[in-house]
Amino acid sequence: xxxxxxxxxLAGLQDKTWLYTGAESPLLMETKWAVESxxxxxxxGPDGRLLNSQEEANCKQxxxxxxxxxxxxxxxxxxxxxxxxxxxxxxxxxPGDNVVINTLEFPSGILPWLALKQxxxxxxxxxxxxxxxxxEDILAQVDKxxxxxxxxxxxYITGARLDYIRLYEQLKETNALLFLDATxxxxxxxxxxxxxxxxxCSSYKWLMSIHxxxxxxxxxxxxxxxxxxxxxxxxxxxxxxxxxxxxxDFLEDARRFEQGYPSYATIYALSSSTKLLLEIGIDxxxxxxxxxxxxxxxxMAKLPYPLMTPxxxxxxxxxxxxxxxxxxxxxxxxxxxSIFVWGGDGRFRVSIHFFNDKEDVDRLVGxxxxxxxxxxxx
Length: 378
Known about the structure:
The protein is an alpha/beta fold. It has helices spanning 29-41, 46-66, 80-88, 111-114, 135-139, 164-171, 242-245, 264-280, 282-300, 327-335, 358-376; strands at residues 17-18, 74-77, 98-102, 122-126, 146-152, 177-181, 198-202, 214-218, 319-323, 339-340, 342-344, 347-351. The chain has a 7-stranded mixed beta sheet with strand order 2-8-7-6-5-3-4, with helices on both faces. A 3-stranded antiparallel beta sheet has the order 9-12-11. Strands 1-10 form a two-stranded parallel ribbon.
């Protein structure tokens, strides 16, 4: 269970145990150099702008390849929260329509829909049962007035992986569109845009990039007409003629949601990191992560932290969560030993990616054993 790549290819990782990718990833040296190349290209004037456009096209193509889609159906915006709000306000929901969400969603997947309640939209919230929400739980809330089901592929709270493909096949028999948050999945397990209607993902977690972009993917199979509620010069066909014509037409593809210049520094970074992910292969990354995750689960079995994440490999991805009332304190104590995990919400979360290895897990478990021993001696 060695790391897939040499840890020296990541900046500053030699003296840290980084099990924190569910929050954000460490910085690849290649990513750092990619951002530097963007800054260098700024010195080239018009030629630099051409290079920016080329890198943007490369980035969209690589993201599309990761999700088994097409580049024209990928838009790059500032963050996932912006994307969900844009789509929520573009669907033209009517009073009496309903949206299905659940209690294991990240706030960005909840707030835009709650804001629609004042317009007469019913929000149906599914409560988890023992940290589980099933496809059947979701489908039980869907009726003829359901317009959207919002769910994560992998829960940020529990690390559970939802069978969104089976969910989508059922939803295709209804009027409900599936909005899939792949932020905790894309880059570590397979994600297929052909089994959802909308896909959203952040750039700085499992995709190994930096802050500054949110990825929007649109599957045109059922999403045939969607008019944004906001507009910018990059989202229209006739940007230089709008003053004279006093009219405009949205672009036909996902670019209709891109209003202005994106974060090109992040585009260079994401283009570089997705190139690496494709070269390694998501299937290889997933195999490594699931095997190392099982090793972690086995090592943690003797410690007094109940496993929240499903044990079966097909039900989890890179996040493995353990119930712990003092999760925040545990994370802080580990950070003092240069071991990074996420703590809070009644648990701590260990995130395993392709750069992690058996030694990382052993160091984590060893420090947890020391913390427990220290507590017992007080």
